[in-house]
UniProtKB/TrEMBL annotation:
Protein name: Leucine-rich repeat domain-containing protein
Domain of life of the source: Bacteria
Extent of the signal sequence: none
SUPFAM superfamilies: L domain-like
Pfam family, one: LRR_5
Length: 456
């Protein structure tokens, strides 16, 4: 918060005005700068949006009118230090850079136009200009958090030489269609469009290689994203909590999708990509509670990519189960066991929306968690184990309530009141029934109904 006074008169002995010296003095209407001043720090006049007049005695500082706007310009550095008033501001050609927060909080401003010779725009230069509706950007190669908090910004034109955006349009809540990104843009950096609540559609040009952390996070109205063909990386929480997003088609060149990139996209229903290999970091699609279809035939997944996605019905990940025990079999995704034991396949993703029968691969020794088994007996009518060995439960301990929890899942965990049926080979069925008779501690012998597998 700025100090509430209206006039600043600096002494004749003053040589330096430090960084942010009068920043956010929002009620100051007049300032006197003596001839003795030889240095002015960055952001010294940031956010002084009420300034109406200035007595500037320093020969290299100019205070002058451009249209209805008033500008304070450092002629040594060709830098715009402050701009107040005026509905339309066209940056003068002699200005090569715009200082930090130079026009921040200018409530009168509606339109801004840059020129091709502009080289740099400081952080927050036009931030919180709540009346700003239209910007035309030219000259610069990078833009930081220049327009954040411009609530009424609706129309944006960006130059083709622009390479990177970062935090540029954060919380610009009147934007609805991000279709203005120029070909040649390489990176949509951190928080560029975060909290743009009304954005419904995003078109990413082919030139973009990186979408940074939280770039489109919390865009709750976002329904459609068209990615560029050469996109390489999607950062952490890039589209987190985009609750209107229903489908994602990742491009063929994508390599990395970082932690929680699509976290809590609660209406997401389908994910597709033909990419050869995607490095999914941790909870990429975590808590996408309505996700039903995951089609990644040429790529595997890792970490906890689909944690909390309990509605998945159809998956095709990594193609068919290969010789390393990686791939999809009967709608369940398997990964190679960490000990790399031959012919052992580990259950990695058992779709929560899959129903009816779960058939395991015949020529593999299946490894799974006890948690996955509890989940399976609640959702399937029958579990078919056609192999010579029963699956390995890698975290099961019968002496710490394991049996009781299993019985509860088997009998009380199903809405239809039925119990899951175990289907095994004849010789395996006989072994399990013998264990039951001898009251051995074996979870597989506890199924109420153990059925012999018939030749198909």
């Amino acid at each position: 918060m700025g100090v509430r006074f209206e006039e600043i008169i600096l002494p004749d002995s003053l040589e330096e005005i430090g960084r942010n010296a009068f920043a956010w003095c929002q009620y100051v209407k007049h300032i006197t700068i003596p001839e003795s001043v030889v240095k002015i720090g960055k952001g010294a006049f940031a956010g002084m949006c009420a300034l109406e007049s200035a007595d500037v005695r320093v020969p290299w500082i100019e205070w002058r009118r451009y249209g209805k706007a008033m500008m304070l310009i450092d002629k040594r550095r060709d830098e715009l230090l402050l701009c107040t008033g005026g509905e339309y501001v066209k940056i003068p050609r002699e200005v090569k850079s715009i200082g930090e927060y130079a026009c921040a909080g200018n409530k009168e401003l509606k339109r801004v136009k840059f020129h091709n010779g502009l080289e740099c725009v400081g952080e927050g230069a036009f931030s919180n200009c709540i009346g700003l509706e239209e910007v035309t950007v030219a000259g610069v190669e990078e833009l930081g958090g220049v327009f954040y908090g411009c609530d009424n910004l609706r129309k944006v034109k960006l130059n083709r030489g622009l390479k990177k955006l970062e935090g540029t349009f954060y919380a610009c809540r009147s934007l609805t269609d991000v279709n203005f990104l120029p070909e040649g843009l390489m990176e949509i950096g951190e928080s560029t469009f975060s909290n743009c609540w009304n954005v419904k559609k995003v078109t990413v040009p082919d030139s973009v290689r990186i979408i940074g952390d939280e770039a489109f996070a919390y865009c709750e109205a976002l329904e459609n994203v068209k990615f560029g063909r050469y996109l390489d990386t999607i950062g952490e929480e890039a589209f987190a909590e985009c609750s209107s997003l229903r489908r994602i088609d990742l491009p063929e060149n994508i390599k990395v999708v970082d932690d929680k990139a699509f976290y809590k996209c609660t209406n997401m229903q389908e994910v597709r990509s033909e990419a050869e290999h995607i490095d999914f970091i941790s909870e990429v699609f975590g808590q996408c509670e309505r996700l039903k279809r995951v089609i990644l035939p040429n790529s595997g997944v890792g970490g906890l990519s689909f944690l909390g996605c309990d509605s998945i019905e159809v998956i095709d990940i990594g193609g068919e189960l290969d010789d390393d025990g990686v791939g999809t079999y009967d709608g369940v995704y398997y990964m190679q066991n960490i000990r790399r034991i031959p012919k052992v396949a580990c259950v990695y993703l058992l779709p929560g929306g899959k129903r009816g029968v779960w058939r395991m691969p015949e020529n593999w020794w299946v490894e799974m968690s006890y948690y996955e088994l509890l989940k399976a007996v609640r959702q399937f009518d029958s579990i078919v184990c056609p192999g010579e060995h029963m699956p390995i439960l890698n975290d099961y301990n019968p002496y710490y309530g394991g049996h009781e929890r299993f019985k509860e899942a088997l009998h009380d965990g199903r809405a239809d009141g039925k119990s899951c049926v175990l289907v095994v080979r004849k010789e395996m069925r006989e072994k399990l029934l013998q264990k039951r008779k001898e009251d051995e501690m074996d979870v597989w012998s506890m199924f109420d109904e153990i059925v012999e597998l018939k030749d198909e």
